[in-house]
């Protein structure tokens, strides 16, 4: 019900605001991450001006509420390029499934939720946590939509997206469990768009699968315990209890299995 209601609401929003959607939003974010990395080579202090800083935001540097999302994913050039191309791949896959408007809504909601959580009194260095939550929100959306998509980890090891998604989810869970309560709250708030978008559908899918298994089990039970067509007069065996036996009607009009039948 929640999932269907959300879809109807998004359909209404898209009819009104769909023209405002930015095509390929994750590509833009990845591109600005690459630009930020290049600028940091010229001026290492540049990154200090875009990272999330709660105290600086309260002092008026409000751009930090959003610029943290373009903080480079790594410092090594190879990993920077890998992160950029992987973000391109994720964007194109999700956008083909959802369209630009829904992807825009999801990305903006994720950024807004994470930024809102950052207004809680959290220790310094939360910016890296925010990037981790954002990447997790985006990747888990991809892994949920395309669980069997094969990804070559480090460009070599083939592994399905769903297993990487489970690993990502385990890391988030471990962060919530082992970290201070405030950090756990930030993770949960930041992941709210993913939870709202996918969890109702996942729960409904599990419910339907469980109901199907119950119906299948009941059907198989009824098949085994139902009335048999053949029954041996001597031993009482049926095609249900002894499916490998053959049953024939003898000259006396009674039915016998091949184990009890008298040789001719």
Report on this structure.
- With 264 residues, this protein is mainly α.
- The chain has 10 helices and 4 strands, in the order αααααααββαααββ.
- It folds into 2 domains: 2-205, Up-down Bundle (Rhomboid-like fold), CATH 1.20.1540; 220-264, no CATH class.
- The protein has helices at 2-17, 25-42, 54-58, 64-67, 77-98, 100-117, 126-145, 161-178, 181-190, 192-225; strands at residues 150-153, 157-160, 247-249, 255-257.
- The strands form 2 sheets. The protein has a two-stranded antiparallel sheet. A two-stranded antiparallel sheet has the order 3-4.
- Strand 1 and strand 2 (157-160) form a beta hairpin.
- The longest helix is centred in the C-terminal third of the chain and has 34 residues, at 192-225.
- The relative contact order is 0.08.
Which terms would index this structure?
264 residues, mainly alpha, Rhomboid-like fold, two-stranded antiparallel ribbon, 5% strand
What is the radius of gyration computed over CA atoms, rounded to a whole number of angstroms?
Answer: 29 Å
Note the beta-strand portion: 5-15%
**Share in helix:** 55-70%
For the biggest sheet, the summary is:
2 strands, antiparallel
* Element-level helix/strand string: HHHHHHHEEHHHEE
Specify the CATH architecture of the largest domain. Answer: Up-down Bundle
Per the principal axes of the C-alpha atoms, what is the gross shape? elongated
Summarize the SSE layout with pairings:
Blueprint: H1 2-17, H2 25-42, H3 54-58, H4 64-67, H5 77-98, H6 100-117, H7 126-145, E1 150-153, E2 157-160, H8 161-178, H9 181-190, H10 192-225, E3 247-249, E4 255-257
């Amino acid at each position: 019900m929640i999932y269907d209601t959300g879809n109807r609401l998004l359909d209404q929003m898209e009819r009104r605001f769909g023209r405002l959607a930015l095509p390929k939003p994750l590509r833009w974010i990845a591109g600005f991450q690459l630009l930020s990395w290049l600028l940091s080579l010229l001026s290492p202090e540049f990154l200090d001006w875009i990272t999330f800083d709660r105290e600086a935001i309260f002092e008026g540097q409000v751009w930090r509420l959003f610029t943290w999302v373009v903080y480079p994913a790594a410092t090594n050039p190879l990993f920077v390029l890998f992160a950029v191309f992987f973000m391109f791949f994720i964007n194109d896959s999700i956008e083909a499934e959802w369209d630009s408007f829904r992807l825009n809504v999801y990305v903006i909601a994720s950024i807004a939720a994470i930024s809102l959580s950052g207004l809680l009194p959290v220790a310094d260095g939360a910016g890296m946590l925010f990037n981790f939550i954002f990447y997790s929100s985006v990747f888990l959306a991809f892994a949920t939509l395309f669980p069997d998509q094969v990804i070559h980890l480090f460009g070599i090891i083939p592994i399905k997206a769903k297993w990487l998604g489970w690993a990502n989810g385990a890391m988030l869970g471990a962060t919530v469990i082992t970290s201070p309560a405030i950090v756990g709250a930030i993770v949960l708030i930041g992941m709210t768009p993913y939870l709202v978008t996918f969890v109702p559908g996942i729960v409904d899918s599990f419910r339907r699968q469980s109901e199907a298994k119950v119906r299948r089990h009941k059907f198989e039970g009824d098949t085994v315990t139902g009335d048999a067509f053949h029954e041996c007069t001597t031993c009482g065996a049926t095609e249900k209890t002894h499916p490998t036996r053959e049953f024939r009607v003898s000259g006396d009009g009674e039915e016998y299995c091949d184990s009890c039948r008298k040789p001719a």
